[in-house]
Hints:
This protein is of the alpha+beta class. The chain has helices at residues 3-14, 18-37, 83-91; strands at residues 42-44, 48-55, 58-61, 68-71, 74-81. The strands form 2 sheets. Strands 1-2-5 form a 3-stranded antiparallel beta sheet. Strands 3-4 form a two-stranded antiparallel sheet. Helix 1 (3-14) packs across helix 2 (18-37).
Amino acid sequence: MNKTELRDAIAQHADLTNAQADKALEAVVSSITSAVAKGDKVTLPGFGTFEARERSARTGRNPQTGETLEIAASTAPAFKAGSAFKAAVNKA
């Protein structure tokens, strides 16, 4: 499912126009993105949790040359699925 298909599903499910569903989808995505970027957790009960996780610096290896290199510490977005979401996926 791509973004357009998701928008269409939201519009049909919530009895909205495509324009309204698109605005709603954009609002949800931008709200989650900005909250996680600030370091907050976003928890949707039954669905999951979005958060930022710290990755420590580590040593890596260039697969072409075998040369070792230092990979800098970074912050990465993460999603942990909720129990209801996991159960729904396992039934499918």
